[in-house]
Amino acid sequence: MAVTIGVARETAVGERRVALTPETCKKLVAAGAQVRVERGLGSAAHFSDAAYADAGATLVDDARAALSGAGVALCVRPPEIDRLHLLDAGTALVGVLQPDADAARGDAIVSRGLVAFPLERLPRTTRAQSMDVLSSQAGMAGYKAVLIGAQLAPRFFPMLTTAAGTIRPSKVLVVGAGVAGLQAVATAKRLGAQVEGFDVRPETREQIESLGGRFLDLGVSAAGEGGYARALTDSERAEQQRRLGDHLKSIDVVVCTAAVPGRPAPKIVTAAMVAGMRPGSVIVDLAAESGGNCEATRPGETVDVGGVIVAGPLDLASLGATHASEMFARNVFNFVQLLLVDGALAPDWSDELLAKTVWPARAAVEDAAA
Question: Where does the Alanine dehydrogenase/pyridine nucleotide transhydrogenase NAD(H)-binding domain start and stop, copy by copy (predicted)?
Fold first, then answer.
């Protein structure tokens, strides 16, 4: 029997992205699924109801009509608890769900007998790359962060030779060389800035330099075994902080991107470092949602700290809602394909991507089904 896939409008404040685009809707219909979409689903990301209808979706008037009786429900952000109660037992819920971050949400998922697939739990393997929503959305966040930095900075990014003299390029430092950080390095370079990248993992040097940036070597290596960073000693951390503080005195824009999923962001830029920066300098902290890499960051605000502008933007990927949605929806489609056989819901629990992503753990899901 063909599965029904339901998608309701996102309810988080400021969220513009969607987990289903007309493109992926058409692919799911072609795979044999029936798709129900709440009207206005994609309006904030500039996907019209007509486009969904043309892709084969059935348009309905509210979330209840979209979700009730669905075998699979898709979302970007964790649904509110009343939304979870609209879903039938056994429904597969796919999105960034963070069930461990909210006890009430986790309890609702369990009590309703839902089979939740929090995509942030997806194993980081080569096969899973096409489903990796964290990476795809981090790329947009890194891009937007640099544009925010360029807008807030009272300086040009590129070098300019004018009749009024030569303007030197801005110096940009990107802290953290994950997906967001590397995208920030590439974007700042395209805008003409002098770009440096810093990461505690020395193996990121090649990645930063391949994008035209210079690797900032603070003389302290956190290289560990198996490609993982080791914890720094107290003396190593103090030396690293001293050298970073001295270096920041000459930097125009700092983009902080260091985050650890499920944990508070590490504090890298101290209040003393901010006080030592030149007036007119800018810090854009992508890690604001998890506390920030900078001690002066206020999540969701842009503040002036002694002449240094510190921005803590939230949900940056949503600012690029159209392309961010296209990437997110493709990630979701690639994952949902693992759940379907000839258009019917038939998860293969021998597939490690399903078994390691499902929440509660696989054994709990099987007990609930029994």
Answer: 150-312
Distance, CA of 335 to CA of 12 (rounded, Å): 23
Copy the structure tokens of residue 22. 């007309």
Q: Does domain 137-319 have CATH number 3.40.930.10?
A: no
- Output the pLDDT for position 363: 53
Residue extents of the structural domains in the chain: 4-131+321-369, 137-319
Q: What is the mean pLDDT of residues 207-227?
A: 81
Give the separation between CA 178 and CA 203, rounded to whole angstroms: 12
Domain 4-131+321-369: state its class.
alpha beta
Taking CA atoms, 69 is separated from 3, 65, 363, 367, in Å, by: 10, 9, 24, 22
Q: Check for a shared fold between 4-131+321-369 and 137-319.
A: yes
Question: What predicted TM-score, i.e. pTM, was given to this entire model?
Answer: 0.90
pLDDT at 84: 96
CB 267 within 8 A of CB 298: no
pLDDT of residue 20: 98
pLDDT attached to residue 234: 80
**Cα separation of 137 and 59, whole Å?**
27
Catalytically active residues, by annotation: 124, 129, 132, 135, 228
Q: Is 29 exposed, middle or buried (0-12, 13-18, 19+ CB in 10 A)?
A: middle
